[in-house]
Amino acid sequence: MGFVKPVLIISSAVTACLAYLTYTSVPRGFRNPWKMRLFNILLKVQQFVICTEEALGIDNWINLNRRLAAPRLKKLEYALAHSVKARNELYDGIPVRVYRPRNASSPGPLPVWVYFHGGGWIFGNLDMYDAFCRRVVLESGIAVVSVGYRLAPEHPYPAPLDDCHKVAQYVLKNASQLRFDESKVVVGGDSVGGNLAAAVAIRMINSNPPLAAQILIYPVLQSITYQLPSYCLPWTPMLKRHRMPIYSLLYFMGSYKQAWVDAMLKNAHVTEKVRQRYSQYVDFRKLPEHYLQGYSEPKSGNVNEELAFMLEPYVTNPEINPLLNESLVGAPPALVMTCRYDVLRDDGILYALRLKEAGVRVEHLDYEHGFHGMVFLTEKPLRFDVGVESLQDVCKFIRTHIFI
Fold first, then answer.
1. Exposed/middle/buried for residue 135 (C-beta within 10 Å: 0-12, 13-18, 19+)
2. Any catalytic annotation for residue 401?
3. Which of 117, 165, 269, 372 is catalytic?
4. Is 254 helix (H, G, I), strand (E, B) or coil?
5. Is the pTM of this model over 0.70?
6. Catalytic residue among 163, 190, 342, 347
7. 242 is catalytic
8. Residue range 105-163, pLDDT digits in tens
């Protein structure tokens, strides 16, 4: 009997771990449900490894994530490797990777997308997004300049934004020498890359020549509230609600405390005065009716006055929170992509509405089966239909709105 008890305990623990890793509840009607379950298993295993290594004192979770999420360049499929040229360069001292079609249909200067990657302002590098950039070049014919901007927490705001802005300015200023079409320079990115792109687009609102467009793929656009309907969704693969305050704090000032995160999730990080001042920009009542079904605005927690005072310069800064800009008049035409199952969905929807109200030409695509990170999941075995669709939509926007 003394032997049986430990075996039962170990068996129960193993069974519980397997159940945790393998069970994923997927909404009814979601396309590719078994791929999503497989994807979630991979994410859970990765996080389990990271938590174990951090508990063992190997390194902190940021560096562990960076190492796991940034593998060496995998062997590219033939078309991506041989139909697209890539070269590492420095633009105004900032590392970039420049992609061009190997056999461009026209020998003249090319339209160019200055691309800012996602990763919560703390993850990501040129290698991680290499295949995506090559795919865009191959399917749209545009050139891409992928920007290796500095990352928080080592380099908090404004360093990442300044790097992105400098590269965009450099491309515009030196377009002819770089063999780019200065009238067709686009800025854009995914997630926090969309945040950086929106901020750069506003910084360059009076540039001459102006930016041709901005491409915002499920962007994060505000940190005033973490209780919009999309932040209250029960199921959001890839990006979880509790992660956004952590990423924001690391971007703001390079550090965070769990108590601050907990307060932000309850909206206890802003005073009533600040909340009222910016409420018109984050008004959930402007969202589509079908996203309001079953939603009731959560009651905010008691304001943490010390935290609110410390964070006010950041959460009210329109460069960090483009949705809070008083005016968006003159912003470049935009493609805004949002996903039903994404905590950042409502940020993008509200921004698209504000751009339209400012007279900006906007194409807003909201994906019923979409989720954060989908645009990169286009290759087997994790080839999601919505991932392929969204990447095709990006390339279609470039072909129809930039190649004109």
1. buried
2. no
3. 372
4. coil
5. yes
6. 342
7. no
8. 666 899 999 999 999 999 999 999 999 999 999 999 999 999 999 999 999 999 999 99
